[in-house]
Design brief:
By secondary structure, this protein is α+β, with helices and mostly antiparallel strands. It is built from 11 helices and 9 strands.
């Protein structure tokens, strides 16, 4: 693909903001910048998380000549492109020469997400194929569920990020586990705690426990019981929820045809999208990559 077709930093971020964030913002022509409600701030913050990951990791991985945007750069660019984001930016409204560390407690939910994901994307390092995960703890399980014919897979639309498809995910709490591998599952809105044990030891010691959490996640999401599921593969991949943590990713098959109506997205459609996503123009990036970015980021780090 020629250089003229590379989606620039400004164009990519602008398009992502249009698709993922703009629907939650007040009209651009609004003259009054009212403080958004707490729930609206958290919703916008979740969408901004996707914007930062998609640009700083996904887009840059394909166009290595583009620069990584740090926290302040991303905030400033976002406000320039979307002035109606200013109501969500405490730092941008009160920024001076004060050290950033002293302002950390004043950061808005949106700014906190941008800061965290900028750190995560730096850790991922778009210039390398696979990050070093050997010493990282596992903080989440995720499941790609396929039907009995291995033709369709289960995905939920808007369950994590509005406008985006995602597979089944569940956080795990490894701070209190037994040798038998009994792990405590946690919900995404609860405070996460993870162990500091090496990844290789963790996977071996807690294999059964991770599987239990994965089966529970499928049950809660689809109603399908463990007795109707078979684990086809498992992999350790990078977690997008917290810096330097990993995800235990499973591919499971539902063995009962009676549940096929629950698992409806054709697998070949998803594979075709991933296979054709290496050469991107802006329209393709927005229509194909963005709606499936949660799934793509999982598959990026599979061996």
């Amino acid at each position: 693909m020629g250089k003229s077709q590379v989606c620039s930093t400004e164009d990519a971020v602008h398009a992502l903001l249009d698709y993922l964030v703009e629907p939650l913002l007040p009209p651009a022509e609004s003259t009054k910048q009212r403080t958004p409600s707490e729930s609206r701030q958290l919703s916008v913050a979740k969408q901004m998380r996707a914007v930062v990951l998609l640009y700083n990791y996904y887009h840059r991985k394909r166009h290595l000549q583009l620069e990584h945007l740090g926290f302040e750069q991303f905030c400033k660019l976002a406000v320039v492109l979307k002035p109606n984001l200013m109501a969500h930016m405490n730092l941008m409204k009160s920024y001076n020469d004060t050290e950033l560390a002293t302002l950390n407690k004043q950061l808005s939910p949106v700014e906190k997400e941008i800061m965290e994901v900028c750190d995560i994307s730096m850790c991922l390092d778009a210039l390398t194929d696979v990050p070093m995960m050997k010493e990282w703890p596992i903080s989440k399980v995720s499941v790609l569920l396929v039907d009995s014919r291995k033709e369709n897979c289960f995905m939920k639309f808007g369950s994590i990020t509005k406008g985006v498809w995602s597979i089944i995910e569940k956080d795990v709490n490894l701070s209190s586990h037994s040798p038998e591998g009994n792990l405590e599952a946690t919900h995404t809105n609860k405070r996460k705690r993870v162990t500091k044990r090496p990844l290789t030891d963790q996977v071996g010691d807690d294999k059964i426990g991770f599987q239990k959490v994965a089966f529970l996640a499928v049950k809660e999401t689809t109603g399908i019981s463990q007795s109707d599921l078979t684990i086809m593969e498992s992999h350790i991949v990078y977690s997008m929820s917290k810096e330097k943590t990993a995800t235990c990713f499973y591919i499971m098959q539902c063995t009962q045809p009676s549940f096929n109506h629950v698992i409806e997205m054709p697998i070949l459609d998803a594979i075709d999208r991933f296979a054709s996503s290496h050469d991107l123009i802006l329209t393709f990036f927005m229509l194909v990559v963005v709606p499936l970015y949660h799934v793509y980021l999982i598959f990026t780090y599979m061996p």
